Amino acid sequence: MSFYYRVRAATKVSLIHLLCSLVVVGLIASLVFLIWYPYPYGLLSGGLSLFAILITADLICGPVLTLILFNPKKPRREIITDIALVTVIQLLALGYGIHTVYQARPLFLVHEIDRFNVVGKPEYQGHEVEPSLAALPEQMRPGWFRRPIVVGIREPKDPTERQTVMFDSLQGGRDYSQRPEFYIPYDRDYRNKVLAKAKPLRKFLTHYPGFMGEASNIAKQTGISVDECLFLPVHHRQDWIVVLDQSAKIIGFLPGDGFIAM
Questions:
Q1: Which terminus of the chain is less hemmed in, N or C, by CB atoms within 10 Å?
Q2: pTM score of the predicted model
Protein backbone atom coordinates (compact mmCIF):
# COMPACT_ATOMS: atom_id res chain seq x y z
CA MET A 1 0.00 0.00 0.00
CA SER A 2 1.50 3.35 -1.08
CA PHE A 3 2.11 6.27 1.25
CA TYR A 4 -0.20 8.37 -0.91
CA TYR A 5 -3.08 5.93 -0.45
CA ARG A 6 -2.52 5.85 3.31
CA VAL A 7 -2.52 9.68 3.52
CA ARG A 8 -5.64 9.92 1.35
CA ALA A 9 -7.51 7.40 3.50
CA ALA A 10 -6.38 9.08 6.74
CA THR A 11 -7.39 12.49 5.40
CA LYS A 12 -10.86 11.21 4.52
CA VAL A 13 -11.39 9.73 7.98
CA SER A 14 -9.96 12.87 9.59
CA LEU A 15 -12.40 15.08 7.67
CA ILE A 16 -15.31 12.88 8.77
CA HIS A 17 -14.04 13.21 12.34
CA LEU A 18 -13.84 17.00 11.91
CA LEU A 19 -17.40 17.13 10.56
CA CYS A 20 -18.72 15.13 13.53
CA SER A 21 -16.76 17.37 15.90
CA LEU A 22 -18.26 20.47 14.30
CA VAL A 23 -21.78 19.12 14.84
CA VAL A 24 -21.05 18.46 18.53
CA VAL A 25 -19.40 21.87 18.95
CA GLY A 26 -22.36 23.52 17.24
CA LEU A 27 -24.75 21.99 19.76
CA ILE A 28 -22.52 23.06 22.65
CA ALA A 29 -22.18 26.57 21.19
CA SER A 30 -25.97 26.85 21.16
CA LEU A 31 -26.04 26.14 24.90
CA VAL A 32 -23.14 28.49 25.61
CA PHE A 33 -24.28 31.51 23.59
CA LEU A 34 -28.05 31.18 23.88
CA ILE A 35 -28.21 30.27 27.58
CA TRP A 36 -24.94 30.79 29.48
CA TYR A 37 -23.61 33.82 27.59
CA PRO A 38 -26.52 35.43 25.72
CA TYR A 39 -25.69 38.66 23.93
CA PRO A 40 -23.88 40.75 25.07
CA TYR A 41 -22.52 38.68 28.00
CA GLY A 42 -20.19 36.74 25.72
CA LEU A 43 -18.47 40.02 24.85
CA LEU A 44 -18.51 41.90 28.15
CA SER A 45 -17.57 38.80 30.18
CA GLY A 46 -14.88 37.52 27.84
CA GLY A 47 -16.83 34.28 27.31
CA LEU A 48 -16.60 34.48 23.54
CA SER A 49 -12.79 34.50 23.44
CA LEU A 50 -12.52 31.84 26.16
CA PHE A 51 -14.89 29.50 24.35
CA ALA A 52 -13.18 30.12 21.00
CA ILE A 53 -9.74 29.21 22.39
CA LEU A 54 -10.91 26.02 24.12
CA ILE A 55 -13.07 24.79 21.25
CA THR A 56 -10.47 25.57 18.57
CA ALA A 57 -7.92 23.52 20.49
CA ASP A 58 -10.41 20.66 20.81
CA LEU A 59 -11.36 20.76 17.12
CA ILE A 60 -7.70 20.59 16.12
CA CYS A 61 -6.80 17.91 18.65
CA GLY A 62 -9.17 15.15 17.51
CA PRO A 63 -8.93 15.29 13.70
CA VAL A 64 -5.15 15.82 13.76
CA LEU A 65 -4.64 12.77 15.99
CA THR A 66 -6.88 10.78 13.66
CA LEU A 67 -4.85 11.94 10.66
CA ILE A 68 -1.62 10.83 12.34
CA LEU A 69 -2.81 7.47 13.69
CA PHE A 70 -5.19 6.17 11.05
CA ASN A 71 -3.75 3.55 8.72
CA PRO A 72 -6.02 1.24 6.69
CA LYS A 73 -3.28 -1.45 6.86
CA LYS A 74 -3.77 -1.82 10.59
CA PRO A 75 -5.96 -4.68 11.90
CA ARG A 76 -9.59 -3.68 12.42
CA ARG A 77 -9.26 -4.09 16.19
CA GLU A 78 -6.28 -1.73 16.30
CA ILE A 79 -8.10 0.89 14.21
CA ILE A 80 -11.09 0.76 16.60
CA THR A 81 -8.74 1.11 19.58
CA ASP A 82 -7.04 4.14 18.02
CA ILE A 83 -10.35 5.84 17.26
CA ALA A 84 -11.63 5.08 20.77
CA LEU A 85 -8.50 6.56 22.37
CA VAL A 86 -8.67 9.69 20.22
CA THR A 87 -12.36 10.09 21.04
CA VAL A 88 -11.71 9.73 24.78
CA ILE A 89 -8.90 12.31 24.64
CA GLN A 90 -11.09 14.70 22.69
CA LEU A 91 -14.07 14.23 25.01
CA LEU A 92 -11.88 14.84 28.06
CA ALA A 93 -10.55 18.05 26.51
CA LEU A 94 -14.07 19.07 25.54
CA GLY A 95 -15.37 18.30 29.02
CA TYR A 96 -12.64 20.43 30.56
CA GLY A 97 -13.48 23.29 28.18
CA ILE A 98 -17.19 23.11 28.95
CA HIS A 99 -16.50 23.01 32.69
CA THR A 100 -14.21 26.05 32.45
CA VAL A 101 -16.74 28.08 30.46
CA TYR A 102 -19.57 26.97 32.78
CA GLN A 103 -17.65 27.99 35.92
CA ALA A 104 -16.87 31.43 34.47
CA ARG A 105 -20.38 32.13 33.16
CA PRO A 106 -22.33 35.16 34.41
CA LEU A 107 -25.02 34.14 36.89
CA PHE A 108 -26.59 37.49 37.74
CA LEU A 109 -26.93 41.03 36.49
CA VAL A 110 -27.14 42.87 39.82
CA HIS A 111 -28.35 46.45 40.19
CA GLU A 112 -26.31 48.30 42.79
CA ILE A 113 -27.03 52.02 43.38
CA ASP A 114 -25.99 53.66 40.06
CA ARG A 115 -24.83 50.66 38.01
CA PHE A 116 -25.38 47.04 37.10
CA ASN A 117 -22.74 44.47 38.02
CA VAL A 118 -22.24 41.22 36.12
CA VAL A 119 -21.66 38.56 38.75
CA GLY A 120 -20.46 35.02 38.14
CA LYS A 121 -18.85 32.44 40.36
CA PRO A 122 -15.38 34.06 40.17
CA GLU A 123 -16.82 37.27 41.67
CA TYR A 124 -17.71 35.39 44.85
CA GLN A 125 -13.95 35.14 45.51
CA GLY A 126 -14.03 31.48 46.51
CA HIS A 127 -16.62 31.95 49.26
CA GLU A 128 -19.17 29.19 49.77
CA VAL A 129 -22.35 30.80 48.45
CA GLU A 130 -24.35 27.68 47.60
CA PRO A 131 -26.52 27.87 50.75
CA SER A 132 -27.35 31.52 49.98
CA LEU A 133 -28.16 30.71 46.36
CA ALA A 134 -30.34 27.77 47.42
CA ALA A 135 -32.24 30.04 49.80
CA LEU A 136 -33.25 32.39 46.97
CA PRO A 137 -36.75 32.12 45.47
CA GLU A 138 -36.90 29.49 42.72
CA GLN A 139 -37.15 32.07 39.92
CA MET A 140 -33.91 33.68 41.12
CA ARG A 141 -31.76 30.56 41.39
CA PRO A 142 -29.19 29.97 38.64
CA GLY A 143 -29.20 26.64 36.84
CA TRP A 144 -27.70 24.75 33.90
CA PHE A 145 -30.33 25.97 31.49
CA ARG A 146 -30.96 29.46 32.86
CA ARG A 147 -29.76 32.75 31.47
CA PRO A 148 -28.19 35.42 33.71
CA ILE A 149 -30.86 36.61 36.15
CA VAL A 150 -31.52 40.29 36.81
CA VAL A 151 -31.80 41.03 40.54
CA GLY A 152 -31.78 43.98 42.93
CA ILE A 153 -30.19 44.42 46.34
CA ARG A 154 -32.04 44.84 49.64
CA GLU A 155 -31.06 47.33 52.31
CA PRO A 156 -28.95 46.05 55.24
CA LYS A 157 -31.10 44.84 58.13
CA ASP A 158 -29.15 46.82 60.73
CA PRO A 159 -26.03 49.00 61.18
CA THR A 160 -23.93 45.96 62.07
CA GLU A 161 -24.72 44.25 58.76
CA ARG A 162 -23.99 47.48 56.89
CA GLN A 163 -20.62 47.92 58.61
CA THR A 164 -19.62 44.31 57.99
CA VAL A 165 -20.10 44.66 54.24
CA MET A 166 -18.52 48.12 54.11
CA PHE A 167 -15.35 47.11 55.95
CA ASP A 168 -15.02 43.88 53.96
CA SER A 169 -15.39 45.66 50.60
CA LEU A 170 -12.90 48.38 51.60
CA GLN A 171 -10.33 45.64 52.28
CA GLY A 172 -10.82 44.10 48.85
CA GLY A 173 -13.53 41.68 49.91
CA ARG A 174 -17.08 41.29 48.66
CA ASP A 175 -19.52 44.12 48.19
CA TYR A 176 -23.33 43.78 48.24
CA SER A 177 -23.54 42.58 44.65
CA GLN A 178 -21.23 39.66 45.49
CA ARG A 179 -23.42 38.47 48.38
CA PRO A 180 -26.45 36.42 47.25
CA GLU A 181 -28.10 36.83 50.66
CA PHE A 182 -28.79 40.46 49.67
CA TYR A 183 -30.46 39.64 46.34
CA ILE A 184 -34.12 40.51 45.88
CA PRO A 185 -36.42 40.37 42.83
CA TYR A 186 -36.01 43.06 40.18
CA ASP A 187 -39.72 43.80 40.23
CA ARG A 188 -41.90 46.86 39.65
CA ASP A 189 -41.48 48.12 43.22
CA TYR A 190 -37.71 47.77 43.16
CA ARG A 191 -37.34 49.58 39.84
CA ASN A 192 -38.08 52.92 41.47
CA LYS A 193 -34.54 52.72 42.90
CA VAL A 194 -33.20 52.23 39.39
CA LEU A 195 -35.17 55.16 38.00
CA ALA A 196 -33.78 57.41 40.73
CA LYS A 197 -30.25 56.97 39.31
CA ALA A 198 -30.88 56.31 35.61
CA LYS A 199 -29.89 58.99 33.09
CA PRO A 200 -31.36 59.89 29.67
CA LEU A 201 -29.86 57.78 26.89
CA ARG A 202 -29.36 60.95 24.86
CA LYS A 203 -26.71 61.99 27.38
CA PHE A 204 -24.73 58.81 26.66
CA LEU A 205 -25.16 59.27 22.90
CA THR A 206 -23.55 62.72 23.03
CA HIS A 207 -20.32 60.86 23.90
CA TYR A 208 -20.97 57.97 21.49
CA PRO A 209 -22.91 59.39 18.50
CA GLY A 210 -21.87 56.39 16.41
CA PHE A 211 -24.30 54.20 18.36
CA MET A 212 -27.34 56.30 17.46
CA GLY A 213 -28.49 53.73 14.90
CA GLU A 214 -28.26 50.84 17.35
CA ALA A 215 -30.03 52.88 20.02
CA SER A 216 -32.84 53.72 17.60
CA ASN A 217 -33.28 50.02 16.76
CA ILE A 218 -33.48 49.07 20.44
CA ALA A 219 -36.06 51.78 21.11
CA LYS A 220 -38.08 50.93 17.99
CA GLN A 221 -38.33 47.23 18.95
CA THR A 222 -39.90 48.32 22.24
CA GLY A 223 -42.24 50.83 20.64
CA ILE A 224 -40.70 53.94 22.21
CA SER A 225 -38.38 56.72 21.06
CA VAL A 226 -34.72 57.22 21.94
CA ASP A 227 -35.73 60.30 23.94
CA GLU A 228 -37.78 58.06 26.24
CA CYS A 229 -34.89 55.67 26.90
CA LEU A 230 -32.69 55.74 29.98
CA PHE A 231 -29.39 54.04 30.80
CA LEU A 232 -27.07 52.88 33.57
CA PRO A 233 -23.47 51.63 33.25
CA VAL A 234 -22.56 47.96 33.41
CA HIS A 235 -19.51 47.24 35.57
CA HIS A 236 -17.44 44.29 34.36
CA ARG A 237 -14.43 43.49 32.18
CA GLN A 238 -15.72 45.55 29.23
CA ASP A 239 -17.48 48.92 29.12
CA TRP A 240 -21.20 48.59 28.35
CA ILE A 241 -24.49 50.14 29.39
CA VAL A 242 -27.99 48.78 29.89
CA VAL A 243 -30.75 50.59 28.02
CA LEU A 244 -33.94 51.02 30.05
CA ASP A 245 -37.46 52.11 29.32
CA GLN A 246 -39.44 54.50 31.51
CA SER A 247 -40.33 51.66 33.91
CA ALA A 248 -36.65 50.63 34.31
CA LYS A 249 -37.19 47.45 32.31
CA ILE A 250 -33.99 46.41 30.51
CA ILE A 251 -34.62 46.62 26.76
CA GLY A 252 -31.08 46.34 25.40
CA PHE A 253 -27.36 46.90 25.75
CA LEU A 254 -24.82 49.19 24.08
CA PRO A 255 -21.00 49.19 24.28
CA GLY A 256 -19.33 52.21 25.82
CA ASP A 257 -18.27 53.75 29.14
CA GLY A 258 -21.50 54.88 30.77
CA PHE A 259 -19.77 56.45 33.74
CA ILE A 260 -18.47 59.38 31.66
CA ALA A 261 -22.09 60.35 30.96
CA MET A 262 -23.28 60.08 34.57
A1: N
A2: 0.84
